[in-house]
Structure formats: C-alpha cells, structure tokens
Specification:
binds zinc ion, 3-stranded mixed β-sheet
Length: 399
C-alpha cells in the first residue's frame, strides 16, 4: 500500500506543479498589491520597472499555461480533499527522508505543493518547504518550477525576489546589453539625465530624491525608534550597488507606525548633500509598513576611522553582479551601522533609482558614521549616486 501511495504521489507531482503555477497566477491576479511587494523590494533592486514589464509578459504566458492546465487544476481540486487527512504528506515526507544523498528540487517543490494542499498556504512549514525548494533549485535550469515556487511564496505573503530571480534567469541567455531589458546606469547614454526617457517619473516627478539638504527647515515632529536584529548575512551585488537583504523582524518605528526593514545598500558618494556637499558615502535602509508605504533611513558615511561593520560587508560582498549570497556562519546586525542619536532631516521623496517611484519618506540622520578612505576605495562602484533633484516647493524638516 505504501509503495502504491508513493507511486501515486510521484505521478501527481506534475499535477501539483501545475497547481503551484496556477495558485501563483490566481493569487497574483487576485492581489494587485503583490505588484507593490515586488517594486518595493527594490529601492536599490533597481530595475523594478523593467521587472514589472517582464512580469506582465510572464503573467500573460502563465495565463496561457493556466488555461492549458485548467482541466488538470480542476482535477487537482478534486484530489485535494483526499490530501486533507495528511496521510499522503506523511508518507511522502517519510519517502523523502529515506532518500539517500541530495533530494532533487522537484521533489522538494512537490513536498511544498503537498503541504500547500494539506495544510494551506499560510502554514509556516508550507512556506519553508517552498523556500527550501528555492534554495535547492539550480539557477541555470528549471526556471518554470522556480517561478512557480516563488509565486506560491509571494502569494502566501512571503517576501521573495520573485521577478529579480526569474528575470535574471531569463536574461542569462540573452547577454546583458543585447536583450530587451531597459538598461540604466550612472553615466553615459543611460545616465540619470536620460532615465526619464524610459522611466517617466524620473523625468517628470516633482518629488524626486535625493535632495541638497539646506535650510530654512520646518520643525520635524517625527520620533524614530530603530530596532534592528542580528541575522544571517544575505548580500548581493546587483550591478548598481552592494545590497544586504534583511530577514523579517527588524523594524523602524516612526511615531506609532511600524516599518519593516527590507534591505539596505550604499551609494558613493552620498546622494544627499548637506549645504551642497556630499559625504564619502551613504547607507540607505529601506523599510515598508503594513500599508505598503516606504521609508528610507539614510546614514551618511564620513571619511575617517576604519568601520568594523563595513569590513564584514565588504569582505563578503560579491565583486561582480550576481545573485544573493549567504556566507556560512556570518551574522550581521544592521544596528552596527546606525548612530545612537536619531536626530534627522526629513522630506518626501522618491526611489533614487529607476523607476523613481514617489511617496517615499526620507529620514537622513544628522549624525554621521565613520568609514576609512581605503574602505571607500574598496567599494566596487566608483560612482553610483543620482544627482540632487529640484525641491519644487517641498519643505525639509529637521529636529
Ligand atoms: Zn539608495
């Protein structure tokens, strides 16, 4: 009987994959805010707009798939009840446990799909099964499976870099410059003065960042409380900056509003200027609250003493563009880059990289943090700062 069950499970795996794909698609179309989830991952993740374009295309392709798969999906719904008692899941888990050596990612994905059917999308183990499937997946192949798993995770409300990873995979075959991707840069033809050609808000927006911070100031009434936690270091070179992705649990409280830290990244020199002068670098901590509103905490890095925290980051940062790496046994607490005093300048602004989306509140700390000259020189991007943007009547607050 067990053997028969196993066989049956292997056979329905294809069906389950189809289910994951359909599930992701349905959830996307049902939840437009998933789109925001994707953009917001990205103050520094940068190519958000083009990723969104790709998503739209991908969704269209997926829809075709889903239509093809609809009969199978219906069948799946019928099969679903038979999974509800958990017997199949238990058996399949036992089967996977009994496998010698590496579990192939499809099986892990199948496990996720089975959990999804048995326990639902909100079940933490469902989520971790899909996450594991992602970790195991080979980036050079199985794009569809990966995207299906990512979509399922995103639909379950998990932060995953759905498009970045799916899209990066697609691009690999095309070559970086030759493909259909809209490119942007900090100099040359696709430099900041031309971003507006491809990303209208960058050119037409009236509340753009960064700013030259200079008085007169209005009084800032905002109180900040930083509560960042130590976690595994997840770091990447996205071709525009060094970015550290942060696991859920680190927060910035602005008055009573709680913002979750998503990621932080660096610009050289600092994008913000104080009285017309940039600092050596700036760290941007990108947060989002439950309503999807973004807030960026800026820590200006001033040339001075060696910075221990920066050493940890630079030692582990990939030298060239590529996916996130998680070096073993390296822990990092973002607090180590934040000064104790949180007095600040604040203003309404935008993402400082395309698509330059507005509605982002900036808090630039007055207290700077030291970085050694050599550490600045070791940052792999010579210049990755957007020029300061017109104030257009905005008020800058200070406390
Ligand atoms: Zn930034």
């Amino acid at each position: 009987m067990k053997k028969y069950l196993r066989l049956m499970v292997e056979v329905v795996l294809g069906l389950l994959l189809a289910g994951a794909l359909a599930f992701g698609y349905w959830s996307y179309t049902g939840k437009t805010h998933a789109m925001h989830e994707l953009t917001d991952a990205s103050e520094g993740m940068s190519e958000a707009q083009e990723e969104l374009d790709k998503l739209t295309k991908e969704l269209a392709e997926t829809k075709e798939k889903v239509d093809e798969l609809e009969p199978a999906a219906k069948e799946l719904a019928a099969v679903k009840d038979s999974f509800a008692n958990g017997v199949v899941l238990q058996d399949y888990e036992a089967f996977i446990k009994a496998q010698k050596g590496q579990i192939i990612s499809e099986r892990q994905l199948g496990l996720g799909a089975l959990r999804l059917l048995t326990k639902g999308a909100q079940d933490p183990e469902t989520v971790s099964a899909f996450q594991k499937a992602l970790e195991m997946a080979e980036w050079s192949s199985r794009l569809k499976s990966i995207c299906a798993a990512q979509n399922a995770l995103a639909a379950a409300g998990q932060k995953v870099k759905v498009l970045a990873d799916c899209a990066a995979e697609k691009e690999a075959g095309h070559g970086k410059k030759g493909g259909h991707a809209v490119h942007w840069d900090y100099a040359g033809e696709m430099g900041p003065e031309n971003w507006g050609d491809e990303f209208p808000t960058c050119g037409k927006g009236l509340k753009q960042s960064p700013l030259n911070i200079t008085g007169p100031f209005e009084k800032s009434k905002d109180t900040l409380v930083v509560n960042y936690k130590e976690g595994p270091l997840k770091i990447l070179n996205n071709g525009h900056t060094i970015q550290v992705n942060v696991e859920p649990g680190s927060t910035l409280k602005i008055n009573k509003d709680v913002y979750n830290l998503l990621q932080f990244h660096f610009h050289r020199p600092s994008e913000e200027q104080i009285d017309g002068k940039p600092m050596a670098m700036v760290a941007h901590f990108v947060h989002k609250n439950a309503e999807g509103k973004l807030a960026v905490l800026g820590v200006l890095l001033n040339e001075g003493k060696d910075n221990e925290a920066i050493n940890v980051l630079w030692d582990n940062a990939p030298k060239s563009e590529g996916p996130e790496v998680m070096p073993e046994k390296v822990k990092f607490n973002p607090t180590s880059l934040v000064p104790a005093a949180l007095t600040h300048y604040s203003y309404e602004g935008s993402l400082t990289t395309p698509p330059c989306t507005e509605g982002v509140n900036f808090y630039i700390l007055k207290t700077t943090v030291d970085i050694a000259k050599k550490q600045v020189a070791d940052f792999p991007f010579k210049r990755n700062a957007r020029p300061v943007q017109p104030l257009n009547g905005r008020k800058i607050n200070a406390n």
